[in-house]
Amino acid sequence: MSTRHHLPLISAVFLLFLSLYLPPSLFASDDHESNPISRFRNYLRINTAHPTPNYAAAVNHLTAFAATIPTVQTQTLYFTTRDKPLLLITWPGSNPTLPAILLNSHLDSVPVEPSKWLHDPFAAHVSDDGKIYARGAQDDKCIGMQYLEAIKSLKVNLDYTPLRTVYISYVPDEEIGGFDGWGKFVESREFKELDIGFVLDEGQASITDEFRVFYADRSPWNLVIRANGIPGHGSKMYDNSAMENLMKSVEVMMKFRENQFDLVKAGRAMNSEVISVNPVFFKAGTPSPSGFLMNMQPSEVEAGFDVRLPPTADPDLMRRRIEEEWAPEWRNMTYEITEKGPLRDNMGRPLMTATNDSNPWWSIFKQAIAASGGKLAKPEILPSTTDARFMRQLGIPTLGFSPMKNTPILLHDHNEYLKDTVYFEGIKVYEHIIRSLSSFDGASIIETR
Ligand SMILES: *[C@@H]1O[C@H](CO)[C@@H](O)[C@H](O)[C@H]1NC(C)=O
Ligand SMILES: *[C@@H]1O[C@H](CO)[C@@H](O)[C@H](O)[C@H]1NC(C)=O
Ligand SMILES: [Zn+2]
User: Fold this and answer.
1) How far is CA 53 from CA 108, 175, 265, 441, in A?
2) Rounded distance between C-alpha atoms, residue 288 and residue 144, angstroms
3) Is 174 among the residues known to form the active site?
4) Could you tell which of 273, 347, 358, 366 is best to mutate to test the pocket of ligand 2, judged by most ligand atoms within 8 Å of the CB?
5) Which of 212, 177, 187 is nearest to 106 (CA)?
6) Residues 334 and 411 in one domain
7) Residue 250 sits in which domain range?
């Protein structure tokens, strides 16, 4: 009888002993949301990979965490269908007449091939040396949670209130073009009412100890060239077959590619500063049951190229080059360009954000990085395309930045991971950045130079 009475007490003492002497990780399952790493891992465990991203679960996770931060408000917006929510978080500033700051992150990620991974890509496994493995660890669930962690820290630890309102948008569909995500958002009445003055969007990891920052994207063109000619027997030599004409064009294009690539190899330009041209498909031949007819020269052939232009390139010049040299009509060729993104903003200016003193936001951003103890690499053009183009089109200064240094670039790769120490450092960096940007009163431009 007496033993039964004492059991609860003994258990309590035992549990206390356990909690004092065993590593806290053993208790993590009892307290999922207790620290930044467990919150990050829980976000990573939500599968938002295409083609079936679970946006609702991601929005719930972020909304629940935001609700723990005093004064922060959340709102879920729908611009297309109910299964494509956009989460907007508002941290009200004390002077709502000043243009606001927008921090952006996309909810979705690219698909995975789980068999090629060391760990389940949605388990957020942590290795002994602190690497958190998950799809989205770098691209870009890290920044999505770091924004909130930084705001929570500024509010709860420092009781800081921003001067300018800070918004965070969590958008769907970035990885499939962003048209139903940020694309729709920027056209909405809700967006115009925010009065955004400056935007931070995702960047990329850096393998050195300098952070990378991006002031422009390259714009992809899908180029398909076609050649038509008279068909002929495989044994006959004759001029101007479709295949021959296409190959002539390919030669010209590959010379152009080589020239651009040589600039990179000579150190005159970064990879993303030149026009890249890469062949991605050839469609030719007359099918037969065993493959292709070998004695038949086809009358129609086609090739596809991924062409990418930096905003410094002249799109009209490029179009002329394609028309006159790559797929000339006199060589019986046609072409089709599908522009996957703009190269100019709505005012006709190159689609890029100034990274010099003409842009006061740049100066503040740069100083905030320095104040956090970090170093910035030379600003770059992102080799691929992001949602940032939608903001830059409106003429809103937008920088791409993900604070991950000394980290291999693993976006879209197997075994994408981020180290816990790098993640924590990122939160600190954002504390500096968000504080500096949101307290910028517009009058201190001179001082910041
Ligand atoms: C273009 O097609 C016409 C008609 O088939 C042909 O006579 C001519 O030789 C072709 N020219 C070239 C350059 O392929
Ligand atoms: C700043 O950069 C922009 C864009 O690259 C350029 O057009 C402008 O002339 C530069 N201004 C100054 C003051 O250097
Ligand atoms: Zn991304």
Assistant:
1) 6, 11, 39, 40
2) 52
3) yes
4) 358
5) 177
6) no
7) 219-339
pLDDT at 32: 53
On the 0-12 / 13-18 / 19+ scale of CB atoms within 10 A, 381 is buried
Contacts (Cβ under 8 Å, ≥6 apart) of 86 = 76, 77, 78, 79, 169, 170, 171, 172, 181, 185
Q: What is the pTM of this model?
A: 0.82
Q: Within this chain, do residues 292 and 179 fall inside the same structural domain, yes or no?
A: no
Tokens encoding 116 = 């090629």
Residues of the chain with pLDDT under 50: 1-10, 12-31, 444-449
Q: Which of 174, 345, 380, 387 is the catalytic position?
A: 174
- pLDDT value for 8: 47
How does pLDDT run across 338-356, given as a tens digit for each residue? 998 888 999 999 999 999 9
Pocket test for ligand 2, best of 273, 347, 356 (most atoms within 8 A of CB): 356
Burial readout 217-239 (b: 16 or more C-beta within 10 A, e: otherwise): bbbbbebbbbbbbeebeeeeeee
Rounded to whole angstroms, what are the CA distances from 83 to 42, 73, 135, 388? 21, 22, 21, 23
Place of tokens 């769907």: 172
The pLDDT of residue 31 is 47
Radius of gyration of the chain from Cα atoms?
Answer: 27
Closest ligand 2 atom, CA of 355?
Answer: 2
- The number of beta carbons lying within 10 Å of the beta carbon of residue 346 is 11
Q: Which of 108, 217, 273, 425 is catalytic?
A: 108
Residues of 31-69 as b/e, b for ≥16 C-beta within 10 angstroms?
eeeeebbbbbbbbbebbbbeeebebeebbebbbebbeeb
Length of the chain: 449
Residues 299 and 332 in one domain: yes
Does residue 133 lie within any of the structural domains?
yes
Query: Could you tell me if 51 and 183 lie in one domain?
Result: yes
The span from the CA of 428 to the CA of 449, in Å, is 24
Here the CATH number for the domain that contains residue 432 is 3.40.630.10
How many domains, the chain? Answer: 2
Q: Using the mean position of ligand 1's atoms as its centre, give its distance from the Cα of residue 209 in Å.
A: 58
Tell the residue nearest (CA) to atom 3 of ligand 2: 354
Q: Looking at the domain assignment, is residue 348 inside a domain?
A: no
* Ligand 2 pocket, residue 156 CB under 6 Å: no
Cβ–ligand 1 distance for 331 under 6 Å, the answer yes
